[in-house]
Amino acid sequence: xxxxxxxxxxxxxxxxxxxxxxxxxxxxxxxxxxxxxxxxxxxxxxxxxxxxxxxxxxxxxxxxxxxxxxxxxxxxxxxxxxxxxxxxxxxxxxxxxxxxxxxxxxxxxxxxxxxxxxxxxxxxxxxxxxxxxxxxxxxxxxxxxxxxxxxxxxxxxxxxxxxxxxxxxxxxxxxxxxxxxxxxxxxxxxxxxxxxxxxxxxxxxxxxxxxxxxxxxxxxxxxxxxxxxxxxxxxxxxxxxxxxxxxxxxxxxxxxxxxxxxxxxxxxxxxxxxxxxxxxxxxxxxxxxxxxxxxxxxxxxxxxxxxxxxxxxxxxxxxxxxxxxxxxxxxxxxxxxxxxxxxxxxxxxxxxxxxxxxxxxxxxxxxxxxxxxxxxxxxxxxxxxxxxxxxxxxxxxxxxxxxxxxxxxxxxxxxxxxxxxxxxxxxxxxxxxxxxxxxxxxxxxxxxxxxxxxxxxxxxxxxxxxxxxxxxxxxxxxxxxxxxxxxxxxxxxxxxxxxxxxxxxxxxxxxxxxxxxxxxxxxxxxxxxxxxxxxxxxxxxxxxxxxxxxxxxxxxxxxxxxxxxxxxxxxxxxxxxxxxxxxxxxxxxxxxxxxxxxxxxxxxxxxxxxxxxxxxxxxxxxxxxxxxxxxxxxxxxxxxxxxxxxxxxxxxxxx
Length: 655
Known about the structure:
It contains two helices and 34 strands. By secondary structure, it is mostly beta strands. Among the domains are: 4-135, no CATH class; 149-186, no CATH class; 249-282; 390-437, no CATH class; 482-575, no CATH class; 596-653, no CATH class. The strands form ten sheets. A five-stranded mixed β-sheet has the order 3-5-7-10-11, covered by helices on one side. Strands 12-13-14-15-16 form a five-stranded antiparallel β-sheet, with no helix packed on it. Strands 17-18-19-20-21 form a five-stranded antiparallel β-sheet, with no helix packed on it. The relative contact order is 0.02.
């Protein structure tokens, strides 16, 4: 009986087998057992997505799969699959020592397996049950699959995670705390104490807001929200430790009330209003001395016993003060502004000079056609107008120029732009027509003028240069004269297929001098386009014919005689089949060399119609025998007593 092997490759030797090698094989089996119990091996699975098949070699302790600990190594750039044969039952410690954010799956060839996640570079205890690869559950984390973990002896204190992403803590059979992502909260409000009266926490640190119904004891830090009860009143007379009160909605100190943006008195709560950069006093400001370091904006009446400006009494400058009608000079005003309520500034015929003039609504003359923008000697530099701006001309703006955004300038209606006088102008009489009008001449100067449209010329077009056409030009009938065509100007390349028709050519207009050599081809002329009337006398000679273009239909009867044929010009390809008869063959011109070949031994005879026929070759001893009138002779065996010489008739024998 032959040896057999286990799934691990251990050889089970039959009785009386392996004499002389039994010890070596036993040692190998022990090595396999040792490798399966304590063996360690590293297996590279580096590279892109792939499947690595691990196998076991019978009778050897060299297979990776025989080891107890297998470490996968290498940099992986795709998801990896490692397979184990279906029938093997074995325990493995698998170490995922690869680098690269991809999965590694260990499975049987046909069954399921265990997957290391993309970042799970850990160790797992796995076993093969002969069908699938199973995680033994000792790989670090304990997965209790949402079941309750009982912690005390009577079973009423436990941890439960049967709700996804939530841990419930039960004490004494009642749910007390819930832990979720970002929150630790009681199950029932106002039910759980944090510490006790005798067992306090030491410090509490919060990076956020602490909300409480009440606080007892010392309190530091910022407090927001509503305070009530004793916490809302500072009862101790001296509070030297209070350095900031935070944001108060309302603060009353004796009879002074601060409420948001106003400061007032109990009888006038909004006497002073504070805003960004502005203090507004609703009542009267009574001060022994008022020192204003900046500008003073007084919207009302300024009453003072005396006013001094820059050390000078204002009374010496303004006389009289009341009403201000007597102000004759103010000197130079270097700062400040004239507000909208000031009214009109009328300085007579004098000018107003400024760096930048800003108009909020419009800038107008004092009367229709009453002012100029600049002068003949003082012109403005640039003019800037906004999108869709309109420049109007005339008392009733009958002519306008309108800016079209990112396009150009639009002249309204059917108005025109004139040059020099009224007869020279450009305009659009409709939305589809543009007119350029001139009394005598419109001159366009450029190296190239590109017209992408049809051109209609009512007068005469005179060209000093050359017209170049991309298509065949069309001329009226009978307009091309011989004098209009240069010598040798018409070549085959200039004539489109079927482009020449009889109606387009004057009689006798095409002479030999106008046609280049080999210029006229059949494809360039319409059928029957060139008649005798269009060809000048003696205009066509042999150089104008295309080779092979003259056939017998175009030759008059008896037009070609021996004088018109070159020596050796006619050969067999020019003969019509069957056209050579006896009359056209000279005497003694048909020789054996001119006759078609035949079969060896055949004889030529003639049938009843006088046509030649071949008599089949007879066999040895036969003689050519006449078969009578109306049929050719034949080879036959002579009758007894008849010699061959008597039976031979007229014959021509080949071979």
